[in-house]
Design brief:
Shape: elongated
CATH architecture: 2-Layer Sandwich
Distance between the termini: 50 Å
CATH topology: Ribosomal Protein S8, Chain: A, domain 1
Number of strands: 5
Largest sheet: 5 strands, antiparallel
Order of helices and strands: HEHEEEEH
CATH superfamily: HupH hydrogenase expression protein, C-terminal domain
Structural class: alpha+beta
CATH class: Alpha Beta
Number of helices: 3
Radius of gyration: 19 Å
Strand content: 15-25%
Strand order of the largest sheet: 1-5-4-3-2
Length: 140
Amino acid sequence: MTTILTTDDDALNFPNRENHSAKQIVFEIRRALQQLLTSGEERVIDFNCIRCDEKEEKQLRAFLGDGDVSATINICGTCTLWETSVHGVWWVIQKNSIGAIIARALHISFAPDILMAQHEDVEYSLYVLERKIKSKEAFI
């Protein structure tokens, strides 16, 4: 869990002064990006563990904007990821098999781990590819 620190209320231009959590999250994102660039350390801001109401989250989404990269992974439910317009900041929403949201988070990383191929999966894929090449299935 990421600790959100207090910040100067006037530093960000949100529609009203009530959005303390959203402002604090933006400052935490800034710190996390600095840390990512200097040490490579990734951070996760888990919305199940912090106080941020729906209105603040909506304003935070608008403030961060949408980037160009998104992905959906369908394993034991659905995991949807998209990069914000702030490169290195990713929304990650996980839903169970009946569609209920079970996790909402911001990942501060070059790419979320869930998008990385697992070593064992790559080994297996190499094995399958080599078999296809030997049997000429891979060629049209």
